[in-house]
Amino acid sequence: MKVIQLMYPYQISSDKMEGPYSLAIGFFDGVHRGHQAVIEEAKKQAKDKNLKLAVMTFNPHPSIVLGQHKEQVFYITPLSQKLEILEELQVDTVFVVRFTSDFAKLSPQQFVDVFIRNLNIQHVTAGFDFTFGAMGSGTMKDLHEMSNGDYEVSIVEKQLQDSDKISSTRIRHALEKGDMELVRELLGRPYQIPGIVVHGDKRGRQIGFPTANVQEAEGTFIPANGVYAVRLQVQNEWHDGVCNVGYKPTFKKPDEKNLTIEVYIHNFDKNIYGEEVKVDWYKYLRGEQKFDGIESLKAQIELDKQHAMEYLSHC
Predict the structure, then answer these.
(1) Does 248 score more than 90 pLDDT?
(2) From CA 195, how far away is CA 214, in angstroms rounded?
(3) pLDDT per residue over 18-35, tens digit each?
(4) Residue 253 CB neighbour total at 10 angstroms
(5) Does 139 score more than 60 pLDDT?
(6) Would you give the end-to-end CA distance of the chain in angstroms?
(7) Sign of CA dihedral 238, 241, 244, 249
(8) Cα–Cα–Cα angle for 161, 163, 164, rounded to 5 degrees
(9) How many other CB atoms are there within 10 angstroms of residue 11's CB atom?
(10) How far apart, in whole angstroms, are the C-alpha atoms of residue 280 and residue 267?
(11) Banded model confidence at residue 119, pLDDT cuts 50, 70, 90
(12) What is the layout of strands, in order, in the sheet containing 152-156?
């Protein structure tokens, strides 16, 4: 898969192009089942018209540039992870458009001229609610009317799960509640956090449950505090486990607010400090709680382990 970075007003030379293209366009945070429907339609058009399959996405999130968020923006799929998923979906080319102040000022017509017509795109597919150009003033109807026969347009209608729209916003709300089973249904796969194993306080090892402390990739959306059934990939192998997200109130003082992701890996005793890992999240087991002693904590962790292994045995 070829990844081509685009900026406005700068453009790339034509020798980097491998079109003509059938293009799926959108921000695609999460690459959830609604996004997958858009990409599948673009793939169908590519096959029918003998075109290359391309996806256009944007980076960073428009709200950062437009000043709608003062705090850090967290992604369901950071760009590197999004690209991995798009490659798995057999996309030929990904255009990553840098979202800047200048880009945000483009009129809908300018956007079409520069980022559709100039890229040798012959078919464009997007969701029914996709907008483009300054202040999102361009609609899918406009995209079709501006084509002048240079490209065709397909509109993918609203995708539903349990009568509600599949959306990145809905997934974020589910993550905030720890509802990983709903997240998995909406994504079409388990929610995943990439990271690196770092040194922790090693308390888990002291009580007989050694854990891997995972430093999540920057900008990753962390689910609600609590205990989860998870799978962790390290050195290209997947392992069942139990993950605690939170502040470890049994050991920490109330004013120590250092959020940690700790994974107990079932039947695993390797030293994996510094290893890149991926954590797939399957089920919320319970909330984080403070225990009155080590023995009660150990008993609960053993129960958590049993519940997680039972659940994961059916996944």
Answers:
(1) no
(2) 6
(3) 889 999 999 999 999 999
(4) 8
(5) yes
(6) 30
(7) negative
(8) 70
(9) 12
(10) 18
(11) very high
(12) 2-6, 93-98, 52-59, 21-25, 121-127, 152-156
Handedness of CA 83, 13, 38, 103 (dihedral sign): positive
Domains of the chain with bracketed CATH: 2-164 (3.40.50.620), 189-312 (2.40.30.30)
Give per-residue pLDDT as tens, 90-118.
Answer: 999 999 999 999 999 999 999 999 999 99
pLDDT tens across 151-210, in order? 999 999 999 999 999 999 999 999 999 999 999 999 999 999 999 999 876 655 555 578
